[in-house]
Amino acid sequence: MKTQVAFKIRTAAPEDCRLLWEWANDPAVRAGAFSSDPIPWERHLDWFKGKQADPNCTLYILMDGQGHPLGQVRFDRQPDGSAETDISIARDYRGRGMGTQALGLACESFRESGKARRIVAFIKPENLASIRIFERAGFSNRGKKWVSQQEAVFMNLDLEDQGTKVQAEMMQVILDALRGLKDDMGQELRIEVSPATVLYGTGSDLDSLALIQLLIDVEKRISERYGPAVTLTDEKVLTREDSPLHTVSSLAQYLATWVMRPT
Ligand SMILES: CC(C)(COP(=O)(O)OP(=O)(O)OC[C@H]1O[C@@H](n2cnc3c(N)ncnc32)[C@H](O)[C@@H]1OP(=O)(O)O)[C@@H](O)C(=O)NCCC(=O)NCCS
To answer: Which of 120, 180, 104 lies closest to 154, judged by CA?
Structure first.
């Protein structure tokens, strides 16, 4: 069953060292890696210290709304301007749609940092769940490559691609509208302004009036920029089971598809 979670994201801190070691030694994680031997604690400690000090490494911890860690996504910037990524979701949370949501959110946060032009991943061909979540996050399959003498599926997300850019613009529109709503409502509205903010459904802090006010503002901002307005307050959009209004991030994706639709 898919679980919609109000994800939070933060960069890894020294106290995450042991948890990351436990996750790294999970059998499915080792099986998915190109070097599958178990990782001794001392080696992990050196690796983690190195990554923490490395300006080319961005290591995110994904958490649920209560701050409970669910998984990690790492980006290692390469000399060619790309960033290589790695993801794992804690064993008990796999297969519920969390990898898909977590990867989308992490890529979005990383894109905003402006640290790379594209994100790439090398995945073992038999790791179908991983290939699937990268496809769903907008990566394209660029065929086979060799990694440590093993075949790998090469996935690529071009951050300068038009679709990615439009989605980023949509994200800014929604975040600006959300900031405006917070200014209007003051103390009444305790909500984070972030791509992970839940707007609608389980875990949302917006009541229906605030949501409608936000959506009307988003519609207005988009029609000012793109002409004829998208209608978000339509019942068909609001009541869809997989409503695109769930988070700021999913709404940005929906709006980008709308803006780029063939007319
Ligand atoms: C890969 C991983 C991050 C995916 O996270 P997750 O939370 O399980 O993923 P989701 O539940 O969001 O999505 C999995 C998708 O793969 C599909 N899937 C899972 N197993 C599959 C299989 N054997 N064949 C085909 N599709 C499969 C699911 O149906 C789902 O697709 P859908 O949403 O279209 O139905 C997680 O399994 C993991 O941590 N694995 C170990 C580490 C790893 O392999 N990391 C990747 C290294 S490149």
So the answer is: 120
